[in-house]
Amino acid sequence: MNRWQRWWRRNELDEKLDGELRDHVERLAADYVAAGMPEVEARRRARLEFGGLEQIKEASRDVRGLNLVDDVTRDIRYAFRLLARSPAFACVAILTLALGIGANTLAFSILQAVLVRELPYRNPDRIVLVWFSPPGEPDDRAGATLQNYFAVRDRSQAFEFVGSRSTIEGSIAVEPDDVAGGEPVVGQRIHATLLPVLGVTPALGTWFTEADDPATAARKLILSHRLWQRRFGGDPAVIGRLVRLDGQEATVIGVMPEGFEFLDAVTQFWTPSRWSEATMASPSRMLVVAARLKPNVTLHQAQAEMDVLAGGLAREFPRTNKGWTIRLEPIHEAYTWRIRAPLLMLQGVVILVLLIACANVVGLLLAQASTRQQEFAMRLALGSSRGRLVRQLFAESVLLASIGCVCGIVLASAGLRVFMAQNPMTWLPRADGITLDARVLEFAVGVSAMSSILFGLLPSWTLSRRASFPAIKGGNTAGGMPHRQLRGVLVSSQVALALVLLIAAGLLVNTMVHLNLNRPGIDPTNLLAFQVRLPLSEMVTPTGRDAGGFFTMEFSPRVSQIFSQIQERLSLVPGVQSVAASVVAPATPAPFQLSLTAAGQPQAADHGMDSAAWFPVSSDYFKTLGIAVRRGREFSKSDSLASTQVAIVNETLARRLWPGEDPIGREITIDFVNDRPRQVVGVVADVRETSNQRDFAPHVFVPEAQLPLASRGWFQAPRITMTYLVRTATDPLQLVGPLRSAVAEVYRSQPIYGIRTMEEAMAEQIASWRQYLMLLGAFAGIAALLTLVGVYGLVAYSVGQRTQEIGIRRALGASSSAVLRLVLRQGLVLIGIGVAVGVTGSLATTRMLQGLLWGVSPTDPLTFVLVSMGLAAAALLACYVPARRALAINPIVALRVQ
Amino acid sequence: MTAPKSDLPQGTLDLLILQVVALGPVHGYAIAQRLQQISRDVLQVQQGSLYPALHRLENRGSLAASWKPSDTGREAKFYRLTPKGRAQLKDETANWARLAEAVQLVLAEGGAS
Asked: What's this model's pTM, rounded to 2 decimal places?
């Protein structure tokens, strides 16, 4: 008979066992009778001698090895019945656990997708990024020049493959008159060897070869899965199709797999690098170099080789490489270094939330247990073993944890939906992969199991140890000191933990307030921004190369003409108050830093050159954005290439160049290709580029219409892309239709894109903040709520336990306030201890938040005081409500209870 | 009741049961009686450990059991030794002898010093 047969036939076996044991007793009795004992006495004696029949049966059944199966099912069934009998206890315990487990599951799903999940490359741990770090900044991550890239590729022994990418923006026209094609999308220019580095193959078509890299090769294009779906309808026949990339013909040769990305999630297409001998000497560090380590080479060995290589490059190309070092970084690290600390902190927070939740459940179980002491004492007396009792109690914990786990997963999936609706992809790398997958579910189950051990063992241990014979007599006055002390410790720790979390959340909220107050000095209400891009091929004519080998070009005068015509036409749209245009979108980090010199300014040797953020803008720019002109005038339509060259400076630059003097009429020279000296005609108020910019930076503004037509180098695409800013009387989004057709009237083939209100744009700057804070705040809120429930539960329980005592005190004449004091005192002491420990803990730990805070010190006294007082007050209230019940105790009834 | 009762060393109950059963099919009560008689009342086996031990040996296949009519007229459960049980008895007897000898030796040496 195997175990299962035995289990199946357990009733029959039980009967047989019964028969066997009865036979024994009867033989024993018969022997006594034979020895001359009266029959009744003989039977009594035999049964007494034989001992506990049920215990022997139980032990014999245990031997069969299936008692466990039986017992566990029975324990679980019993636990179910118990929970059903006290639904309030069950609901509170399960909900508490569900919140704790759900929060952990949600946080882990983010952690898993962003930090843990493998990158979608072959052996991603063999891929490194080759960063170049400027002199004195060995941890910086700057790109490589083309020369650097070729040096790494051709001279290193450590790498199997080396590839690179740079980011471009380009418009892709599927058909010659494709209107949607006017909207540029982000792409990557790559060297063909990048793909073997990553070890990925296109889902469709082929990859580039190195023959495609030089500028003389025919243009080819590989699409992202998303772009292929969006613009080509997922048509497999797209391979070999001729499209226009920035007006020039290019052949689509492949489509990448879904979810493929390299360092950013916005890239929509890949195109070969198109390097040439002429671009070889360019000092620009646009390339991010990636390399695959040879199988037997360690990161350390490769780094040593790179150190030598960096020295060689510094000697060979001192102009670009003197003092620069090379730093290898595993690609996974490059993806995660920025976000690791905040995410780990989030996980730490939810673990604390779970601890608080477990403490609550322990409290509930202890309270319940004290009412069950009689039951357990009875069971012990009837022959149950202590082990069985512990198992029974543990089964109850496991059942609670299991139900809590299921509910927690449901909560987590709801929470995840809310989180994903916030579009976290803008600040969380690889956020699109956040799901409750098998690993996350395993984690949830593991967390539940751990917490059931945490909150299950303690009560079952103390209970079964204490349940002893005297308890059967029904005195629960012993409901006792150890329990009460234990619960006190639990509640104090809960208050302390919750306070630590709340203070952290408080500091972040405070940071948020600072960021909000620190808005750039422009008025964002009823201000719409959108972009218009002119076709590069029509507006720019290549004119060869200059002495340095750089491509030179001539911009068509039509660029400025079209832009100002659009501006004029837009201002005629009903409801529009004022219109301006800028090459740089406001409320973004300034992309152009140019050096400049002021005429007649003595140059101190150690001073170096002044530099400033540079903004080519249209007339009415300051009026439209609501920036105050402090002195002089702003640009007008008459500022043109033919008139006097002018510039406007902000107050910070004015102070720096001409301290204490009037800047109007001064002359400055900006280091921009072919730019002539300019006369300062105005000083404007300081404006922050972004919300989290601490100090004002020097800014210099020039009329877009005065940019020299002959140019060279990098500044092409930005110059034919204008951001229009439209100030309206009412909600600007209502006017998008008329504005769109106004632009089309001037320049038909170019659509407007990137439409958004400035309020949106500014909110986006702090969106990552807001979302992270929302998560953290939600978790801290849950912690606080659970703590309050814990405090409430403790006081309510102790009032219940001391009903008799309070009754006696009332009967002996204790006043209401005396009773209230008696009951509250315990809570007050515990909360006091908790707050003290929590504040100390926070002082020790908030330094970890440093990197997340802005404008707030990690030990900001205001936050500490307000949050501590708030939590203490709420906890007091949670004490007071059950304490009031003590007042309602009727002495007569209380004394009659026993 | 003259001689003081002794507790059985751990693990020896199985050996004793096997030895008693080796003499021929026997039921639980008789095993208890026989153990007590043979040991001249020194060993008193608690029924609380006898029956679990019997069932354990049965489950391991050292003993086989069958219900047969008995002297009382009712059916009783008779245990007998299986070949596996016989082998086990041999092993454990040898084991015990070695152990007893060793203990004796240690005690004797200990007394001499």
From this structure: 0.72
